[in-house]
Write a structure and sequence with these properties.
With 277 residues, this protein is an alpha/beta fold. Helices cover 11% and strands 26% of the residues. The chain is built from 3 helices and 20 strands. Strands 1, 2, 3, 5, 6, 8, 9 and 11 form an 8-stranded mixed sheet that branches. A 4-stranded parallel sheet has the order 16-18-19-20. The chain has a 3-stranded parallel sheet with strand order 10-12-14, with no helix packed on it.
Amino acid sequence: MFRKIFQLLFVVLLWMTATVASAYDFKSGSLCYTIVSKSERTVEVAYANARHANKVVVPSEVNYDGKKWRVVGLGPDAFYDSVKLTELVLPSSIKYIAGGALERCHELKQIKLPSGVTLRTYALRNSGITSIRVPGNVKWGSRHIGQLSNLPKVTSILLEEGIESVPDAAFQFDANLEYLTLPTSLRHIGRYAFVGCSALTRLDIPVGVRTIGRLVDFGDCALKEIHVHWQDPIQIAGNTFPKDTYMNAVLYVPRGSKGNYRASVGWCRFKNIEEET
């Protein structure tokens, strides 16, 4: 009986080893890489043997098979469970960060995102990031959802000038997010952007915003102040904000525009509307 169990475990171990081994094409230093394009000689970080590393510097190029390959991305779960990682340096060659790339990197408090990087769905989820600046030329993944969501320790997010859109569920379940800075370049806020943001009490919506999706559908919402800057309010749905927000939060509007908001569907539901002094 025990012999059969041992044999079964041995087979499973061999299978797991083969699976991990086949998950990347080559290794250089502590990082394993998968080839993205042979013709362009590009690779992504597929796996990081960095469980006990405090700092990892991702190179812009690596040598393999007598050739130089450009490192263009962090693959799915690339640094998964690097529990002691406190510093990750990314080169400017990095063009995308895939979902779960930094998952369970609990000690990684900050990261500098390369210019023009594409954040794919749940790119930074379950990492230890506490504050982050997002470059103005950031790109969102094709599904446009949750790129900055599920960050359990984040308290501050700053979107730099140049960003025009906030994806659906962008900050979903960032339960400790207190400070959110949106740029004047912003034109669109996606649906469910603040689901589960139970610590976010103040929202300042830039005057350039033209469309706002339904902001809360489930999860906590603690908004106490909402500041807007249109003299004539943009159109929003009557259920854009949750009932508690309409009843308890204060909507701050430009001087002389209170009557316009009282006459506007979606905004008129706010019980407390005050003009900025």
